[in-house]
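Closing statement on the magnesium ion sub-project.
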Amino acid sequence: MMQSPTKYLAHKGWHQTAVIAIIGGIYVFGSWALDFNNLNGLIAVPKAFAWLGINFKPTANSMTYLPRIWQKLIQTVLLAISSTVVAAFVAIFVALLGSKVTGVNAFVQTIVRGIASFFRNIPLVAWSMILLFAFKQSDFTGFLALLLMSVGYLIRAFMEIIEDEASETMLALKATGASYFQVIFQAVLPQILPSILSWILYMIENNVRDATLVGILTGTGIGFIFDIYYKSFRFDAAGMTVLAIIIVVIALETISNQIRRVIL
Amino acid sequence: MINSEEKIIQKPKNPRSPQIKLHEKSLSRTMIFVVFISLVLITGYTLTHLDTAGVKVNVAFRELAMTLNQMFLQPNAGTDGVPLLLQALASSVMLSILTTIIGAVFGFLFAVLASKNLTNAYLGAGIRVVMAIVRAIPTIIWALIFSIVCGLGSTAAILGLSFHSIAYLTKAYSESIEGIDKSTIESLKVTGAKFWVIVFQAIWPTIVASFVSWTFIRLEINFANAIAVGAAAGAGGIGYQLFVVSGMSFDFHETGFIVYLVILVTFVLEFIAVKIRQFYLNR
Amino acid sequence: MLEVKNLQKSYEKDRPALTDISFDIKPGTFVAIIGPSGAGKTTILRSLNQLIKDDDGQILLDGDDIRTANKTQLRKFRRQIGMVFQNYNLVERLTVIENVLHGRLGYKSTLAGVFGRYTQEEKEEAMSLLKKVGLENFALKRCSELSGGQKQRVGIARSLIQHPKVILCDEPIASLDPASAQNVMELLKDLTEEYNLICIANLHQINMAKKYADQIIGIRKGKLVFDESSDLLSEDILRTLYDQDITEELE
Ligand SMILES: Nc1ncnc2c1ncn2[C@@H]1O[C@H](COP(=O)(O)OP(=O)(O)OP(=O)(O)O)[C@@H](O)[C@H]1O
Ligand SMILES: [Mg+2]
């Protein structure tokens, strides 16, 4: 640490230059490796929007698609909610077992952590495809895929919440001589409930988006009809679907933000 | 004896916080209660009305167990072979890094222009609305839209992933920027420094740690998205291989192998993220 | 020479925060602005470098009006006017010397400023200013590791490296212990003489104002009620200023 200030500043300058050069280098290399022409890519953006403006424009006809789109969208939202809620229910128990604060012991904690990140990192595509193989093209497939994905995420999130927010309360109540379950139900759960709910809301939003992908792969919900319209070149209907997704996702986000403002 | 103990326990309960606070608290409690109940009711309704397409659930679960067994306990590289899969994996990783770089650069610029403590209200609100709309459209749909204009392939995938990344990171970064105290910005303003100078001399050093962690979170998301786009939009990479083996040739041994590869990569990414974050936090 | 003429400001309609404030300050003068909370001291100080846009009047620095300057001109004015804050306002994650060098940013092109490229002379000047404020051994410490008094001295060095004609200090010692407060006041006083500066400080400590300031400006409810050499500050004036007897403070 006893270097001269001039030297320190020069060193910092070099560091800065090096980081920029490395990132730039990776970018150039990546463009080359993926055969990505930056200029064409840039030109494609306004082109895509012009195309969107022309083809996705709702026509008189597209209103007739609306009831069907709407029904699928509602179904998708319901699936997103129910998969998140079931996942949260499972995750809270697992997180209580696995967190450093409330966990059983170091061994169980390690196991829980391992399983959670394992689940989280299995690609949604893989879940969708193997579930599709077993459960065929049904809503239940979509539900399970979202559920399995969410569980991994929520376990990790809940464990972090418990460790961040409940450790002091936990100590305070333990000091009064309360038993493990008393502490969990009287101190830990009430303390973390708002954050838990906030995460659940976030996960619902996210699952609505992910449901589109799952839908395209497994033939369910909103993703499925988007895929059908898209592949059969009925772009006015596809545009209508996208519009409906935008409205629902933004509505969900707004509602969640309002709820968060009250509870946090 | 018992009497006195009860008194000790009960005493602090009575003179609790003043009324206003109690009211606020009960509002948030009611809200939590109402939201939880509605969520549970919706879930109950959905699950009881779920369409299972006539599949016998217990049979299906047995089949699933068999599939999982093949995947995780007997993985092999299948007909594609290790070199091809590694190459596909590398291209997916490259895709996610590239789009994260694009997202980080543009995301930071937009975040600066969108943050309430830096710019004029109209520009900021405009950017936030546009970004909310871009974010609302799933990555996969962005990729499909771009693939109509540029054809199926990496360009469409890169643009699709970049769009969502930019919108996501704009929001994340601008929340970090809005957390900065106004006074830090003021202190450079009074030296006569120009806008972008203030941004890089006062704001950047302050948020660099959270910038790094958000960027790496997005890198992980982008890796997952790169796989998804590869599978559902036919944009190549390991996602496409995964789609083919699990959905067309039903080779679950190879599916398992690919899943292990993917998990390995995410562990490595996570490890790197932790290291780099530590480095920036300690400096 | 700093001349303020008929300065007006109201945040809300019909509730003026400043009415008709006029005063002159010659170079080499240490001025204290005193007055009760909410009188408008901060508002005056922040109008002087246009962090707050006032409504009417004139602010002349060596004859040029700051108030009518466009964006580029305003930046040029601002680099001639240093500011020292109550809460120091340093970029905590950067080192002491980097924070001092921030005072040079007003003189730099956007590119040089963005990448923080400073010349050798600037770095040497930063070091010599750190010596002057007694922090030469702290140049490479992170600002988050400094005490309040040390942070305030970094803030002063940052304003000095701007080569200012004026230094504005909004309650520079309000967050400091008595000993550090004394150090900072002495430093400001010495620097004012050495560089022939105009130094204007908002103060709540009347004894400090009396001890260090050459000229005292008293503000009450947005109006100027006193503007004289500090020897002339009397108990009577303090009583009108603060609406109550304030005697022990003076001793
Ligand atoms: N941003 C603002 N919006 C509305 N009114 C303001 C604002 N800032 C200050 N005021 C009002 O202007 C008047 C002067 O405030 P100012 O901050 O200049 O007082 P001050 O003398 O610096 O007080 P203190 O000694 O407490 O710092 C006060 O009545 C205050 O309520
Ligand atoms: Mg004030």
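Chain B touches chain C through 22 residues (CB under 8 Å). With this model delivered, the sub-project is considered complete and its resources will be redirected to Aim 3.
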